[in-house]
Amino acid sequence: MTALNAVADLTVEDEVAIVTINSPPVNALSRDVREGLMLGVEKAEADATVKATVIVCAGRTFIAGADITEFGKPHAAPYLPDVLDRIENAKKPVVAALHGTALGGGFEVALTAHYRIAVPSAKCGLPEIKLGLIPGAGGTQRLPRLVGVETALEVILSGTPFSARDAKQWGVVDALAEEGKLAEGAVAFAKSLIAARAPLKKVRDRDEKLAAARGKPEIFEAIRQAHAKKFRGFEAWEKAILSVKNAVDLPFDEGVERERAMFMALLGSTQSKAQRHVFFAERAAAKIADIGPDTPTKPIARVGVIGAGTMGGGIAMNFLNAGIPVTIVETSKEALDRGVSIIQRNYENTAKKGRLTMAEVEARMGRLSLTLDFRALAEADLVIEAVYESMDLKKLIFEKLDGVAKPGAILASNTSYLNVDAIAAATKRPEDVLGMHFFSPANVMRLLEIVRGEKTSKTVLATVAALAPKIGKVGVTVGVCYGFVGNRMLAERQREAGKLILEGATPAQVDRVLTDFGLPMGPFAMSDLAGLDIGWSAETSKGESIRDILCEEGRRGQKTGAGFYDYDEQRNAKPSAHVETIIRAFAAAKGIAQRDITDAEILERLIYPMINEGAKILEEGKAQRASDIDVVWIMGYGWPVYRGGPMFYADTVGLNTVLDKLKEFQAKFGDDFRPAALLEKLAAAGGSFSKA
Ligand code: 3HC
């Protein structure tokens, strides 16, 4: 074995050269890896005893793509296109041997090899779109040559990896190796190529699969239309379609050149920077300062959920999906029946869409037990309380739970606002208590705010943090404060939205500004969806807010056919002239002058106070890092990923711009806009939240 450089070595076995890349964690295409590939192929070419070359990776995966940490920094030779040219133009066959995830630039390396072999568990894909990019090393030119434009665009626009079996069926890989025996299989395959004097097959030379799309621009137009809604606001996807179209319309080298130019332009875009930020933010969120791999965790084999409402049911589904049995406790049979039928219906709907088999629906429902007997919670390793927001009720429940739960069980509250320390104090084991705040719909939204109480033990926190990915969630650890991270910031936005409609904006204008920004819904559409009467009561209502007036009139949101908007049978919203009259009259009665408000002011009034609140959250140590706040907003509230989260967005706008605007608003509208000390400090130092 000869070392080629720090991350690559070369072995010659009979007539086969084996280039092994070993650059943990994922063999990303750093300069060293690029150099290792280049040197490996060159050495193999120069060795007269070698007749074929195998490229294989050590560790968990074949090359998982370009090294994202290198993006935005000056690049050093050898450059990827040159390495790929070297592989493709080798005079002896090169075989790429795939395991783990051959993604992005890694898959593109494999596509320049003359042959590909994979173990059945391997996956291939071009996930660049998820980073606001298009494949930049020939992926949009070579993949359609192997699988045709429609399948290629499906792979590129979804960014989702496909299995080695699909790859074999599509002709992307030439052979499957036995699981766990990739290197041996690849060497045997290479020997068979030598024996057969197999040709140097170059993907670039094939174009029979492109023929079907030649002279048919309508194919691309149909794909564009099919994806337009999903990609609203995103830049990269149309470039991906264009680049694949170039594969059909242009000579190979020109197609590659244009692909590279588009890739480089996107690499410098704010959108791609934002999406790369989110990639790392999601991974950083899992890291908790004082918790490491040595922190012990507890096994969670059975979960209890208190409350079969919308939240309780959604929470239970996460565990049932992950194979963990759940017991739901309720106080009445009706509530239990209602809850279980919602879960059942949810699963059946997924099955109808073909995303779940009926056997799997049954298996999941089979893991669910229902009871009116609180004592059944004694068996649970983790109990999650999901009743309505009342501190008195929660205290009662936790006191009772303390008497029933087995020693060492984790006791969690799904409260969205309340003080977890006060809830913990209702038990004699506050170290076992924490908040697990799920976001509605709880079986869909990926965010889990893990609320660390003052006394929560490290083991309990580590256990829940490790559990989050197992149930498909991204856990973000937050401190105890009213509304935690997400809802605390949301309250700022809601307050301003309420003020803006009194000052002259319409609910539809406010909502449109936010949906134009990229959020799925504005505050008024959201209130209508949730129901305006949540937390409202007819007995105490005194017509003191627009909400009071609407609820008193029976306009309680979508469910009543009217709220801030009017709704038709299909629940399509239409602005309501009647509501606008109510708002105008209310403003007049309060002496609030109405004026035309620009979209720009609406956006700044809604978003900048949220950023300011985020800064206070950081100052108080209620979030570990600014990027955690971004993850909360992206995973929990549908903040557009191409804007990177509110704190990253503030960085792109410039902290001084945000600060100046807040000061201007403070002078005009009062202390709701008083800038956070941290924002003042960072802005003065020319800093940013990302680097704070
Ligand atoms: N560059 C740099 N670091 C990377 C990386 C990459 N491409 N991919 C993963 N990492 C790092 C992660 O940040 C993480 O670091 P940490 O341990 O310090 O937090 C570590 O590798 C392990 O990653 P995961 O925690 O995500 O491990 P998993 O086993 O869950 O997943 C994976 C592995 C499927 C490879 C996943 O990491 C992934 O999807 N990576 C991104 C792949 C990608 O997007 N590739 C395309 C890049 S763009 C490109 O190739 C352009 C080309 O067309 C020119």
TrEMBL record:
Family: In the N-terminal section; belongs to the enoyl-CoA hydratase/isomerase family.
Record text on subunit structure and interactions: Monomer.
One Pfam family this sequence matches: 3HCDH_N
Signal peptide: none
Domain of life according to the entry: Bacteria
GO molecular function, one term: enoyl-CoA hydratase activity
Pathway where this protein functions: Lipid metabolism; fatty acid beta-oxidation
Keywords recorded for this protein, A-Z: Fatty acid metabolism, Isomerase, Lipid degradation, Lipid metabolism, Lyase, Multifunctional enzyme, NAD, Oxidoreductase, Peroxisome
Domain 3-hydroxyacyl-CoA dehydrogenase NAD binding positions: 303-479
PANTHER family, A to Z: 3-HYDROXYACYL-COA DEHYROGENASE, PEROXISOMAL BIFUNCTIONAL ENZYME
An individual GO BP term: fatty acid beta-oxidation
Residue ranges occupied by any 3-hydroxyacyl-CoA dehydrogenase C-terminal domain in the UniProt entry: 483-567, 602-686
Species for this entry: Roseiarcus fermentans
Protein name in UniProt: Short chain enoyl-CoA hydratase /3-hydroxyacyl-CoA dehydrogenase
Reaction(s) catalysed (UniProt annotation): a (3S)-3-hydroxyacyl-CoA + NAD(+) = a 3-oxoacyl-CoA + NADH + H(+)
InterPro entries with a match to the protein in the record: 3-OHacyl-CoA_DH_NAD-bd, 3HC_DH_C, 6-PGluconate_DH-like_C_sf, ClpP/crotonase-like_dom_sf, Enoyl-CoA_hyd/isom_CS, Enoyl-CoA_hydra/iso, NAD(P)-bd_dom_sf
Database matches in PROSITE patterns: ENOYL_COA_HYDRATASE
